[in-house]
Design brief:
The chain crosses the membrane at residues 12-31, 126-147, 153-172, 203-229. 70% of the residues lie in helices and 6% in strands. By secondary structure, it is mostly helical. The chain has a domain at 14-43 and 97-104 and 115-230.
Amino acid sequence: MLGYGYGFYYDPTYILVIIGIILTLVASAKVKGTFAKYSKVRSMSGMTGADAARRVLNSAGIYDVTIERISGNLTDHYDPRGKVLRLSDSVYGSQSVAAIGVAAHECGHAIQDQQDYVPLRIRASLVPVANIGSTLAWPIIVIGAIIGAFDTLVLFGIILFSAAVLFQLITLPVEFNASSRAVAILDQTGILGSQEIHDTKKVLSAAALTYVASAATAILQLLRLVLLFGGRDRD
């Protein structure tokens, strides 16, 4: 049954899974290594990630966003529902250019929220169906294939997973734009010097690779679904 036409023990589409895993591992190693490197470079301003975040937000006219510390490493994120910017242990109190860059990036999302940035709104609207698609697509497809309900469950599962892929794709402009906003404000406000801006760009570029890898992996998974079930005999 495994492979649906490719044989029980051998499924050539697994190569797509392997490629996705490799992309994810490479991107993860790149961002961790780059962040670790520039976490050792202290900013000339002496600002912490939290200090820089508050200044970036205020420079954008945002005063209603709370900045909180959250446990973990690179667990930083902006919560638009609660208007809360959460900075990880490795960013909140750190005075490194890496920490300031990450903090400013998250501020970029807060600015997007304030300005009703369209891709951010689209991504937010896709969250529920994307979560369902990434979690239930395979179970639905397998059940549909087993009971022979290709035209309903299998096709529905593929459509659900497509929504998860769309979420990953729309995430790319959201993340790239947040980084662009962050770099611009850090430069305009003088929080970081020119060389520090250069270093911060390296950190944010490495972080962007994780989103590119996630999108590529999702596309590969969708391609695998299509190859496995798209041309399957429906008789």
